[in-house]
């Protein structure tokens, strides 16, 4: 029988034990340790990238319509999380951080869910690009979580699929030339041009009486609220002074 | 006559039985690491018992696979009262990445009331010791409740 | 009057209460020293007491396949037999029961806890328990041979031509001629006895019969609650009993005149013996397989004891 560690055991009697003191709740892990998730709800733009990349489906999202926008509640369930930090890596605004907090012990499972509510203002309008200044770098295409933008450098095209767009605004942040923005759809209506001779035919043909023409004072007015955009005035104008199109 | 001493001893000498219901062994390695000289769980009286009949705290890791489900139920029944169940890691609580698979059957909550959950994948040995310490304190309360 | 005196001996000193208290204390020291040898902070010294009281508070579950009477009687048998052994061991001049054949009575009484473990395991109705009890039987056979040889050696040395089995006479002989350990022919026997003690107590590397994760604690697998508390207590009581036997046989030459002081010195020397034989070997070894254990005891340890026996028999 051999006793290989006998001398070590006997000398250990005179050394300090190497047991760490039982840690207090404020003790944190080392700097890049991936522990409990902290969520900054103000930075979140609701792009949905974190939910897409989460393998154990630990992130859930609930929305609630309020005045002026939606309240989006995002919850990160620590009891389902794998701590891979994909959500931290893919979050474009760095709203998700994995802190070195490893104390995730709870008797009540509610303590282990990180929740944050973001208020997203209602975005009126659609994504539009100022084509003249666009350099077709494609950064907006690569930063879109839904892959709604298509940019082709060789043919110099920029298109967006408005059905896929979730209006997160990541492309606007990433664009180096700042040519992207949410433009409200321009209202359409009857457009007046200078070739009018004030013959008052349009006023007579208008079925709702929205147009008022004064021959002597040479004025032409239209009540936009009453106008039903039927296009009768446009068809009947002898000088083709009226057209249907976007108002400025 | 020794009621108070018996109640106090329930928290001072909790014996663990570790049950692996299909885990990847990450949490199992960290549980055994709690008994190494660096984290030394034995100074609080923790000891790994060989049989579930000797244990106070059942430490469960792993998503409950279909194969181990019956064994889990039998082991829980074999543990004498007062007992605590501690779930280690995120697998027993929600299945983690194995959610919805055909081979696993539900969170541990379906079979027994879980007293303490330690989240993490895998949790650090310090966090596991904190969870076990909390479970030992719960044991004392359960022991006192058994008198009534 | 004598009945009261003997009741005091049996229940308080040196019977049940003394053995339980000192046994739990020694077990606590054992765990603490092992922890420090492994560079850990161990449990507090009162930990075995907490273990015992916690087990008293647990529910007792008797499996359906178990034989109820034997299942519950085995731990009581083991505990009661151990309460009586200390009465025969001289505590440096004070012996509770002075008989002519102490050693033989002790030999039989010490095998009863092992037999009780076997009865308890056999009545459990579990296959783990049956593996455990067969290993326990082989272990008992293994260490009984050197143990008997050591007892014979001591008897011959003290008595000359007539074998003396009375332990208090052994103690008196040592008071006159110096402790038996100082005679160089007895040293192999002392070594053999030191190696028999861990097997009796059931610690590593000789604990193949019980307390292991391989067969879920062997014969104790179905026990819980108070029967288990009594079994674990028996193991702790065996520590003081076996080391006490060693102390009285080989180191028994001290006389101070006061029973209390004698008892204190006795306990201190027993703790020292325990540290050498049980603790040090426990801290650095793993578990032996049953074949190796049997071979070890019947070759090395029995050989050592036999050397001493031959040396003493030829007169040295």
Verbal overview:
The complex is a heterotrimer of chains A (248), B (148) and C (316). Chain A is an alpha+beta fold and 248 residues long. Helices cover 15% and strands 27% of the residues of chain A. Chain A is elongated, with a radius of gyration of 32 Å. Chain B is of the alpha/beta class. Chain C has helices at residues 2-11, 16-37, 47-56, 68-85, 102-122, 127-159, 167-177, 187-201, 226-250, 259-284, 290-313. Chain C is globular and about 60 Å long. Classes of the chains: A alpha+beta (248), B alpha/beta (148), C mainly alpha (316). The interface between B and C is medium-sized, with 29 and 36 residues. Strand 5 (105-106) of chain A pairs antiparallel with strand 5 of chain B, so a sheet runs across the interface.
Features:
heterotrimer; A: 248 residues; alpha+beta; Alpha-Beta Plaits; 3 domains; three-stranded antiparallel beta sheet; two-stranded antiparallel ribbon; 7 helices; 27% strand; elongated; C: 316 residues; mainly alpha; 11 helices; 68% helix
Nearest-integer average pLDDT of chain B = 90
Largest sheet of chain A: 3 strands, antiparallel
The percent range for helix content of chain A is 10-25%
Rg of chain A: 32 Å
In DSSP terms, counting alpha (H) and pi (I) runs of 4 or more, how many helices of chain B?
5
Mean pLDDT of chain A: 85
- What is the molecular shape of chain B? globular
CATH class of the largest domain in chain A: Alpha Beta
Q: Into which percentage range does the β-strand content of chain B fall?
A: 5-15%
What is the count of distinct domains of chain A?
3
Write down the CATH topology of the largest domain in chain A.
Answer: Alpha-Beta Plaits
- The radius of gyration over CA of chain B amounts to 15 Å
Sketch the topology of chain B as an H/E string, one letter per element. HEHEEHEHEH
By CATH, the topology of chain B is Rossmann fold
Structure classification of chain B: alpha/beta
Distance between the termini of chain B: 15 Å
What is the CA–CA distance across the termini of chain A? 98 Å
- Unreliable runs of chain A: none
């Amino acid at each position: 029988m051999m006793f290989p560690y006998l001398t070590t055991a006997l000398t250990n009697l005179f050394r300090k034990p190497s047991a760490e003191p039982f840690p207090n709740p404020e003790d944190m892990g080392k700097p890049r340790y991936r522990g409990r998730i902290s969520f900054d709800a103000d930075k979140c733009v609701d792009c949905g990238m974190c939910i897409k990349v989460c393998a154990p489906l630990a992130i859930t999202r609930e929305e609630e319509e309020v005045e002026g926008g939606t309240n989006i509640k995002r919850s990160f369930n620590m009891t389902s999380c794998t701590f891979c930090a994909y959500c931290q890596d893919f979050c474009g605004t760095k709203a998700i951080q994995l802190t070195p907090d490893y104390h995730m012990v709870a008797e009540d499972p509610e303590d282990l869910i990180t929740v944050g509510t973001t208020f997203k203002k209602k975005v009126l309008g659609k994504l539009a690009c100022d084509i003249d200044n666009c350099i077709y770098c494609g950064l907006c295409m690569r930063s879109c979580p839904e892959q709604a933008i298509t940019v082709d450098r060789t043919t110099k095209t920029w298109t967006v699929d408005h059905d896929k767009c979730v209006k997160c605004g990541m492309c606007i942040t990433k664009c180096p030339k700042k040519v992207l923005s949410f433009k409200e759809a321009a209202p359409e209506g009857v457009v007046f041009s200078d070739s009018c001779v004030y013959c008052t035919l349009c006023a007579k043909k208008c079925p709702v009486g929205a147009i008022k023409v004064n021959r002597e004072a040479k004025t032409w007015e239209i009540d936009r609220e009453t106008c039903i955009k039927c296009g009768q005035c446009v068809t009947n104008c002898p000088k083709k002074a009226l057209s249907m199109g976007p108002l400025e | 006559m020794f009621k108070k001493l018996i109640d106090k001893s329930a928290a001072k000498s909790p014996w663990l039985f570790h049950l692996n219901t299909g885990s990847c062994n990450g949490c199992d390695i960290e549980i055994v690491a709690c008994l190494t000289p660096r984290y030394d769980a034995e100074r609080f009286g923790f000891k790994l018992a060989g049989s579930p009949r000797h244990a106070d705290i059942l430490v469960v890791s792993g998503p409950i696979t279909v194969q181990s489900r019956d064994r889990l139920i039998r082991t829980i029944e074999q543990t004498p009262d007062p007992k605590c169940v501690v779930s280690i890691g995120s697998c027993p609580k929600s299945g983690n990445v194995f959610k919805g698979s055909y081979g696993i059957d539900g969170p541990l909550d379906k079979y027994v009331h879980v007293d303490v959950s330690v989240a993490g994948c895998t949790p650090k040995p310090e966090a596991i010791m904190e969870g076990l310490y909390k479970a030992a304190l719960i044991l004392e309360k359960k022991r006192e409740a058994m008198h009534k | 009057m004598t009945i009261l005196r003997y009741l005091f001996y049996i229940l308080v000193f040196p019977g049940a209460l003394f053995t339980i208290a000192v046994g739990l204390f020694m077990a606590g020291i054992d765990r603490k020293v092992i922890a420090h040898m492994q560079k850990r902070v161990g449990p507090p010294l009162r930990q075995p007491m907490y273990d015992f009281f916690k087990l008293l508070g647990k529910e007792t579950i008797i499996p359906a396949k178990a034989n109820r009477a034997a299942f519950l009687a085995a731990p009581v048998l083991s505990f009661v037999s151990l309460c009586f052994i200390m009465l025969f061991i001289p505590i440096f001049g004070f012996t509770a029961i002075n008989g002519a054949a102490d050693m033989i009575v002790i030999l039989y009484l010490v095998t009863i806890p092992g037999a009780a473990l076997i009865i308890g395991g056999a009545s459990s109705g579990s296959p783990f328990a049956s593996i455990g009890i067969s290993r326990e039987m082989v272990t008992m056979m293994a260490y009984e041979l050197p143990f008997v040889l050591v007892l014979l050696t001591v008897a011959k040395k003290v008595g000359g031509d007539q074998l003396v089995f009375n332990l208090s006479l052994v103690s008196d002989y040592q008071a006159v001629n110096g402790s038996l350990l100082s005679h160089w022919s007895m040293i192999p026997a002392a070594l053999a006895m030191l190696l028999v003690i861990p097997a009796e107590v059931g610690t590593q590397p000789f604990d193949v019969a019980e307390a292991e994760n391989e067969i879920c604690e062997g014969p104790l697998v179905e026990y819980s609650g108070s029967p288990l508390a009594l079994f674990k207590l028996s193991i702790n009581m065996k520590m003081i009993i076996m080391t006490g036997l060693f102390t009285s046989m080989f180191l028994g030459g001290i006389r101070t005149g006061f029973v209390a002081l004698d008892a204190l010195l006795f306990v201190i020397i027993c703790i020292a013996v325990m540290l050498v034989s049980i603790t040090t070997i426990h801290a650095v070894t793993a578990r032996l397989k049953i074949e190796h254990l049997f071979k070890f005891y019947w070759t090395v340890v029995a050989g050592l004891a036999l050397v001493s026996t031959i040396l003493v028999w030829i007169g040295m």
